[in-house]
Amino acid sequence: MKKVVLKAAVLLCAGIGMSACKSSKQAVQPIDLTGEWNIVTVNGDKINAANTPFIGLDMKEKRVYGNAGCNRMTGSFEIDSLHPGKIQFGQIGTTRMMCPDMETESKVLQALDNVTGYTETDQGLSLTDAEGKALMTLEKRQLPAFSINDLNGEWIISAIDNTQLGKTENTPFLAFDIEQKRVHGNAGCNVINGSFSQEEGKDNSLKFSQMISTMMACPDMETERQILEALSKVNSFSSNQDQTLALLDENGTEVLTLTRNTGEKLSGN
Prior knowledge:
16% of the residues lie in helices and 36% in strands. By secondary structure, the protein is an alpha+beta fold.
């Protein structure tokens, strides 16, 4: 009986074509989109921006983040599980800085809005439109080796939500003590102290807690309020291409920008 069934299966394969019987072995293998990708070309034009634009794809949360050439961007995307190679980005929000070259950013955002698919290339990925035309080519981004230990020392707070800080009573800064997991500094008027922690298994995670400050009143308290509010949102950190430190919220948006202190005497030490 077993031999009869086996013969029938062989004849069936011959009748419908051997390719159908091998379909399970020849199924399209999913492409790993996880991680961060440098944007190399947009609409066939090579990107020559001072800050290389990139996108990061969080497959678990279906979240896209990155830099469009000037401003940080964040949003969502959907993968069509029934049709491999199909992807669509939702509304993408950006910060609002102005840079000398905004043309690259405009091209990147417009291209992402028209993406409906992706294919693997020898160099990385190609994001395509509904007709299969390449809108954007991507290469895997090589992240600099940057860990929590690199935070040790003093950092001047140079921007909030990508807006450069003006003059304050005292220079806002944060000083990290990695061994003690403590942080202190100045929010522009008052001295601040607290602790920080990391989520297990996430090397770039960062959360501040038990942040307390002195209670002096200064002519401008708005900057201090914004800094303390931003600190409460911090969820992770990353190193920018210009060697500044980005403190990010849970959506990957840069809420504070820090610059390494190279010798300035700071109030609060």
